[in-house]
């Protein structure tokens, strides 16, 4: 067995470890326990490894990181999408509570006033 083949095999095993998580996220759409900073850093790092593997023409680095990039990007996108939806829902719920307690209707079309 060549060193390159060993590297590809080890890399593919490690890379495939992200596939079950991506499958679970796609199936359940539950991402609240996933660290957005971790997946952001991981996805950018894997993308840089792809560029590096391409630049030095290393098949093991290139293939394993392409396999890793797809599920990490899926997880990152769905986590980010759910995070944005959660923040919007939370903001609306807060405004509704404020409206109920004060009787003042909030105008969601205006930008918030920024304090100096």
Walkthrough of the structure:
This protein has one domain: Monooxygenase. The longest helix is centred in the last third of the chain and has 44 residues. The mean pLDDT is 84. The chain contains four helices and no strands. The protein is 77% helix and 0% strand. It has 116 residues and is an all-alpha fold. Helix 2 runs parallel beside helix 4 and helix 3 runs antiparallel to helix 4. The radius of gyration is 21 Å and the shape is elongated.
Short description:
This protein is elongated. Helix 1 packs parallel to helix 4 and helix 2 (18-28) runs parallel beside helix 4 (59-102). It is mostly helical.
Label the overall shape.
elongated
Number of individual domains: 1
Instruction: Average the pLDDT over all residues and give the rounded result.
Output: 84
CATH topology (level 3) name? Monooxygenase
User: Proportion of β residues?
Assistant: under 5%
Tell me the structural class: mainly alpha
Strand segment tally: 0
SSE series: HHHH
Element layout with pairings:
Elements: H1 3-16, H2 18-28, H3 36-55, H4 59-102
Helix pairs in contact: 1-4, 2-4, 3-4
